[in-house]
Amino acid sequence: MPIDLPMAQKDLLFQVTRNDQAKSVAELEDILAAPAFGQVFTDHMVDICWSEKGGWHRPRVQPYGPIALDPAASVLHYGQEIFEGLKAYRHPDGSVWSFRPDQNAKRLQRSAKRMALPDLPEEYFLESLRQLIAVDGHWTPGAPETSLYLRPFMFAKEAFLGIRPAKKVNYYLIASPTGAYFPGGVSPVSIWLSTTYSRAGKGGTGQAKTGGNYAASLVAQMEAAEHGCQQVMFLDSVEGKYLEELGGMNVVLVYADGTLVTPASETILEGITRDSILQLAADRGHAVERRPVALEEFRQGVASSQITEVFACGTAAVVTPIGQVLTPDGPIGSANAEAGELTMSLREQLTDIQYGRAEDPYGWMVRLSQ
Ligand code: PLP
Ligand code: COI
81, 91, 166, 183: most buried, per Cβ within 10 A? Predict the structure, then answer.
């Protein structure tokens, strides 16, 4: 007798269409030998439709390829779009794991709320990861510092030029084997302080992971590159006085007494890496402060050696030491600074958990492969 499954379970039955042009073993070996960030994509992708009437439906795994869009699709005009970023790690026994994916699922839900997009249930999000790994898990590289970067995203697909939330939306998941985000690996980076442009404002979309925040950062990122810097740091948009974050990562300062301080504000993306690092530090006995940090406190703290280390953190960047920040009033720190000791030790503790080299006392790792 057929069992009448609840709707949510029925919806999780993914239809899988295999890519008959999948990369050969030899091609894949070449790709995985030196994966750069976000340049090559796996053989498949996940696609789930949503409509106002039908809710989430038609979950599919299909060959990776272009998405057909009506030129009037509202994402192309009004940018109703959100995304996430997380990694799959290959453990010594060959299994594939992700790091706190429940947190990415929840942040996607918060971003969706802010951008008037539908709520993707956490279980759908997690199942999309498992489904993609089931077909493309062999794309997860195994060398140190490498991983399979997972990029879930959702956007307004309805062809409609009125300004209102779209009634048709799709969720996708793509994946890309990756090495270090910065070409120099883990060595200290230089950061350009933007005093001209803001990333986000009060009441805006700073806490949402939405494309517009990144589009708004590009011109400042170009300025950074012109000045030989790898990333841009933004200040608050009201007074231009307080540190916020970098274009694609959070910032943490380490004080001489061992306290870790990170900017807190409603305009910053709440990083999962930052949260995890601060938890590791707190459990080692370090004081941790999430509070406004004035640029002047940063400048004077570095000049007086009250601040001893500064680092950037995020999924792509992991933990990257910051050597100097270039500001209109002169550099803070030095291009030749060495990577901080605590920075590197927290980085190692985090990556040991992520890569399965150490116990995971927090239950952060979630197995994706069967
Ligand atoms: N801030 C911004 C603007 C980001 O794009 C990211 C990266 O996702 C982060 C911070 C760090 O977030 P997470 O550690 O969750 O990757
Ligand atoms: C990530 O770390 O996942 C991001 O989305 C940031 C970007 C620099 C790729």
Answer: 166
CB 172 within 8 A of CB 67: yes
Using 50, 70 and 90 to split pLDDT, how confident is the model at 9? low
DSSP 250: E
Q: Of all atoms in ligand 2, which is nearest to the CA of residue 151?
A: 3
Which residue do the tokens 């073993």 mark?
Answer: 25
Asked if residue 327 has its Cβ within 6 Å of ligand 1, the reply is no
Residue type, 254: V
**CATH tag for 189-338 (out of 2.40.128.110, 1.10.3720.10, 3.30.750.24, 3.20.10.10):** 3.20.10.10
What are the pLDDT digits (tens) for 62-111? Answer: 999 999 999 999 999 999 999 999 999 999 999 999 999 999 999 999 99
Other CB atoms within 10 Å distance of the CB of residue 13: 9
Ligand nearest to the CA of 104: 1
Which protein residue has the closest C-alpha to ligand 2 atom 8?
Answer: 248
Q: Render 119-174 in DSSP notation, one character per residue.
A: PPPHHHHHHHHHHHHHHHGGGS--STT-EEEEEEEEEE--B--SSS--SEEEEEEE
Q: SS3 for 11?
A: helix
Number of Cα atoms under 13 Å in the Cβ half of residue 99: 31
Give the whole-angstrom CA distance, residue 128 versus residue 14. Answer: 9
> In which band, very low, low, confident or very high, does the pLDDT at 338 lie, cut at 50, 70 and 90?
very high
Indicate the pTM of the whole model.
0.96
Which of ligand 2's atoms lies nearest the C-alpha of 149? 3
Q: Whose CA is nearest to atom 7 of ligand 2?
A: 248
| Ligand 1 closest atom vs CA 199 | 3
Per-residue model confidence as pLDDT tens digits over 66-80: 999 999 999 999 999
Q: How far is the CA of 315 from the centre of ligand 2 (A)?
A: 6
Domain ranges in the chain are 3-181+358-367, 189-338
* pLDDT for 351: 98
The DSSP code for 183 is T
* Spatial CA neighbour of 280 closest among 188, 341, 361, 187: 361
